[in-house]
Specification:
Helix content: 25-40%
Radius of gyration: 15 Å
Structural class: alpha+beta
Distance between the termini: 15 Å
Number of helices: 3
């Protein structure tokens, strides 16, 4: 989703760094996987995963068998 942000830095950062969806499901994430460090990007490519740029922070380092989402720094 693209949002127009005024010159207000605080509004920009709140929009870029919101994690409301992750906070709502945080208590259930242990059922999906144990916490672990992500593999390096070249290892992701060796695993035949597409590296996709994500605009939403809550998608950062979410992966499927064929794709991993990376949120670049704003």
């Amino acid at each position: 989703m693209v949002r127009l942000i005024s010159a207000d830095i605080r509004s920009f950062l709140e929009c870029e760094l919101h994690l409301d969806r992750v906070n709502r499901i945080h208590k259930w994430l242990w059922r999906v996987s144990l916490p672990a460090s992500p593999h390096l990007l070249h290892v992701q490519r060796l695993k035949k995963r597409e590296i996709a740029v994500a605009e939403q922070l809550d998608l950062h380092l979410v992966w499927s068998p064929s794709c991993i989402f990376i949120k670049p720094l704003p």
